[in-house]
Write a structure and sequence with these properties.
The structure holds two protein chains of two kinds. Chain A contains ten helices and eleven strands. Chain A is α/β, with parallel strands linked by helices. In chain B, the strands form two sheets. Chain B has a two-stranded antiparallel ribbon with strand order 1-4. The chains are: A alpha/beta, B mainly alpha.
Chain lengths: 262, 300
């Protein structure tokens, strides 16, 4: 029952093949990691899945509930893909600065309000009710991720670990079934890292999510992932469980490099 | 300098508020488009000009009563704004910003020349509406009724706009898009639609401004939008471009500067149109981010 499948997804930029023939499959409820050295094409893969890039070749297939009939989302607009149920966070935190924590979450809920411009201008009751409900929903979400106390603070004034957490909360507000996390532990201290691992598991269970993450922090990857894909120079060089990956020679080679043999 | 009576002061005050309010309606269009696309829309002055022609033809050719004619003219201008964005700016979404700027200059010339071809270069008289143009006397000050309506209409529109931007769904989408396109799209916001709405709102406000401008200065020709357009752009920069309240403040300030310098230094009245540019230079030297503009902090 896979939620996400890529079939030979390839991304070329001029002569550079950033991602070459990517075939991943993510089952419902799994936590899957995408690892690899810098420049391996991991973020490019995320960009293909979320519609930021249209793959040069291949297909990206998605089914919100993990059913048999997967629909292609190749080259769809990012906002439509988000509406279908894929949300993501960014490697470098991209919160809406100069907006409160609450506003950041409410923007992400945006796509679930129905009344449009007209209702807002003439101010009919349904609009207010809806807005009220949205705010309550946002506050409830912040409570669940432990950011309720900071709801009215500016997003960029939060400590680093909490900014990461807010990014995840904001992604959750779009009500995804698949969550893509791009290096969620980047720049975190060991305590924050430990908390994050727990947090990702917790939201996976509570929000009934499937998680695909990019991470360099091996301890997290090995600890949290059900399965791992390893990319190197755009190519998938290994796939398997954490144990399998840890003992895979090609992976060790890619990470440590091989001595030139003359 | 001749003696200035209190009547003259009051008279000038009324004129300054009226002029400033007219500038504000047009300046908001510049500032909103800049806020979201980081584009100085040089075609905005031509949108202003086109809406005057729309109003003119709806009254003279379609023989509509003035209120319907003006309403249709405003609607057409809003649609024109959307069309311009769709045709000239959206295809350049991924292009460098300078391409967008050049495209807007192109649109500006296109509309000017289109107006010459379609409407001829001969000056036309903006249809008079007695209700706005009657002169009334309040405490020795003789003003057109327009001078009362203009600030009121502007105030109402600005309040509605601020409410729209700060309190509604589309406003929230606008604010998010103005911070970061890509992230907004990944939050499910249809950025193209948000931009289209922004252009529509900017053009509609410019149309309201243009029609009231036409009632006050009733001549229309293809270049009628150029100078008001430039001045309102300056007003937006003075206030802090990208900031709606700033545009209103900048516009009112510019209106006051123009009227009061002429009042106090009548000899300079020939240079009236130059004041705006002097103000622009001063503000760029002293406070480039504008009066209420956000400080641009470089991340290190």
């Amino acid at each position: 029952m896979s939620v996400l499948t890529t079939k030979g997804a390839t991304m070329r930029f001029g002569g550079v093949v950033a991602v070459d023939d990517l075939n991943i499959e993510v089952e419902r409820g799994e936590i899957v990691a995408l690892i690899g050295p810098n420049g391996a094409g991991k973020t490019t893969a995320f960009n293909m899945i979320t519609g930021v890039y249209t793959p040069t070749e291949g297909d990206v297939l998605f089914n919100k509930d993990g059913g048999k009939d997967m629909r292609t989302i190749t080259g769809k607009r990012p906002d439509l893909i988000t509406k279908m149920g894929i949300a993501r966070t960014f490697q470098n935190i991209r919160l809406f600065g100069e907006m409160t924590v609450l506003d950041n979450v409410m923007i992400a809920q945006h796509l679930h309000i129905k009344s449009g411009l007209f209702g807002a201008v003439i101010g009919w009751p349904r609009y207010y009710k809806e807005e009220r409900r949205m705010k309550d929903g946002a506050l409830a979400l912040l409570e669940r991720v432990g950011l309720l106390e900071e709801a009215y603070e500016l997003s960029t004034s939060l400590p680093y670990g909490k900014q990461r957490r807010l990014e995840i909360a904001r992604a959750l507000a779009t009500e995804p079934s698949l969550l893509l996390l791009d290096e969620p532990a980047a720049g975190m201290n060991p305590t924050e890292t430990l908390e994050l691992t727990e947090f990702v598991r917790q939201i996976r269970d509570e929000f009934d999510l499937t998680v695909l993450l990019i991470e360099h922090h091996m301890q997290i990857v090995m600890d949290i992932s059900d399965r791992i894909y390893v990319l190197d120079f755009g190519k998938t060089i290994a796939r398997g469980t954490p144990e399998e990956i840890q003992n895979n020679e090609r992976v060790i080679e890619a990470y440590l490099g091989v001595a030139d043999v003359d | 300098m001749s003696a200035i009576t209190s009547d003259m002061l009051l008279q000038s005050l009324a004129n300054a508020i009226t002029l400033g309010s007219l500038y504000a309606l047009v300046a908001i269009g510049y500032t909103m488009v800049y806020g979201i696309l980081r584009l100085i829309n040089f075609a905005h002055g031509e949108i202003f000009m086109m809406s005057m022609y729309f109003a003119f033809y709806f009254v003279t050719a379609a023989m509509l009563p003035w209120y319907l004619a003006f309403l249709f003219a405003i609607a057409c201008t809003g649609i024109l704004g959307i069309i311009i964005e769709r045709a000239a700016y959206r295809p350049l979404r991924e292009a460098p910003r300078i391409s967008l700027l050049i495209s807007s200059i192109g649109v500006s010339y296109l509309l000017q020349n289109l107006a010459v071809v379609l409407f001829s270069g001969i000056q036309k008289q903006f249809p008079p509406v007695a209700m706005f143009q009657d002169v009334i006397t309040i405490a020795n000050v003789r003003i057109q009724k327009l001078s009362i309506y203009v600030p009121l209409i502007t105030a109402v529109l600005v309040i509605v706009l601020l409410y729209l931007v700060n309190k509604t769904k589309i406003g929230m989408a606008m604010r998010a898009s103005s911070k970061d396109f890509e992230t907004s799209r990944l939050m499910g916001i249809n950025v193209n639609r948000v931009i289209a709405v922004t252009f529509c709102i900017g053009s509609v406000l410019a149309a309201v401004g243009a029609i009231m401008w036409g009632l006050k200065y009733p001549k229309i020709e293809p270049y009628v939008g150029t100078l008001p357009g430039l001045k309102c752009f300056i007003a937006a920069v003075i206030g802090g471009i990208g900031n709606i309240k700033g545009a209103v403040i900048g516009a009112l300030l510019l209106g006051f500067i123009e009227i009061f310098i002429v009042l106090f230094f009548p000899a300079l009245s020939g240079y009236k149109d130059a004041f705006a540019f002097v103000a622009l230079i001063v503000i760029l030297l002293v406070r480039p981010s504008g009066l209420v503009g956000e400080k641009i902090a470089n991340k290190v």
